[in-house]
Specification:
Blueprint (H helix, E strand, L loop, with lengths): L5 E5 L3 H13 L3 E5 L2 H10 L4 E5 L7 H10 L6 E5 L14 E4 L4 H36 L10
Parallel strand pairs: 1-2, 1-3, 3-4, 4-5
Length: 151
Amino acid sequence: MPRPPVVLCVDDDRGTLVASAHLLSTRGYDVIATDCAKLALGVLQEQGVDIIVTDYDMPGMNGAHFAARVKAEKYGKPILLRSGFLNITPSATRNVDALSPKGRSAESFLADVDALCQTAAVAHQADLNHKTCSVLQESKLGGNDVAEANL
């Protein structure tokens, strides 16, 4: 049985963080929740996550800066940016994979997360397929008769 996707949820508003984590866990996701972007970077170094859901307006490091750090450090995790602001600039969303406005229904938020997880799963499977093909190609070049590789 495959493990449930792990979502790193980052929001400085405790009420929103708890509500988001609860919604995600009832949907079947494993959730790691933190109220600080700097702490979230530490989580990424220590634990495996599948996607990141982050608030935009946070003290210290906002969601756009957090997303830029995640991309710069090449964690390779898709990021969903949530915000109550209606006029987020394109530069603020440059490093995110999806935007989910706050104030919409819980089902809309969950649909956004589901879609991003599906995209992440497809990308992960494509990466595994590429690695399998590389291993098979290397085996053929090395003279080994390998019909199939399980990674």
